[in-house]
């Protein structure tokens, strides 16, 4: 074999290798979306309200999510990479990067399914329509519902003082608010039943109006028109506190599902 022939053969081999690598790169699916969660809902039920992570750290893991704040001071909405603090008086303000959370879940939101809604649709009917579009109920799904609402009924937990009561007692004095003919967004997750206690099984949704000034944990709603977007996730990164009350918390109460239902206002299905 001459030097010229060897060079030609090597060049063809190299071109073939590069072409194969390019094809493999172009056809590889993007990495699966991951839900990043701080602590567990069972810890929150047991009164573990001290912040385990800052909002700045949390936002490194996603641009969409929900949770609560240090000392159980209100509800959290993360929408389009911005974190909002929803307080017991129904108002909402931007959260600080140094604020802390004892429980939150975030993800990079990439819509896999979209459903256009026209005509008054109740909460129960809308959730059934979303369920019918899911590939599997055994995966986690981020749920974004944006539009005009005939009504939204919310509640917001109040900041607690030590010694902290369990969540079912803390939410017994929750502040409720009602919004009529309002535009805004519901932000949350649909979580598989087998994750009950780690998260809230079923639907868990928080509301933020389009002015980003009011909202809360959604108890009920009627959507007049809007768009539902669903982002599927198959990975869960669970970040557990390694110090403080979490280490002594009872995370496996016999009536866990009943406690979650009471604390969530009976809306987690």
- The strand count comes to 14
Task: Report the CATH architecture.
Answer: 2-Layer Sandwich
Query: Can you give the helix content as a percent range?
Result: 10-25%
**CATH homology-level superfamily:** Hypothetical protein, similar to alpha- acetolactate decarboxylase, domain 2
C-alpha end-to-end distance: 73 Å
Query: Structural class, please?
Result: alpha+beta
**Describe the biggest sheet?**
7 strands, mixed
Number of helices, where a helix is a run of at least 4 consecutive DSSP H or I residues: 6
Low-confidence stretches: 17-28
CATH class bucket: Alpha Beta
CATH domain topology: 60s Ribosomal Protein L30, Chain: A
Radius of gyration: 22 Å
Order of helices and strands: HEHEHEEEEEEEHEHEEEEH
- How many separate domains make up the residues? 1
| Oligomerization status of the protein chains | single chain
Describe the fold and architecture.
Pfam families: AAL_decarboxy. InterPro entries: Acetolactate_a_deCO2ase (IPR005128). GO terms for molecular function: acetolactate decarboxylase activity. The chain is an alpha+beta fold and 269 residues long. Helix content is 21%, strand content 40%. The protein contains six helices and 14 strands. It has a seven-stranded mixed beta sheet, with no helix packed on it.
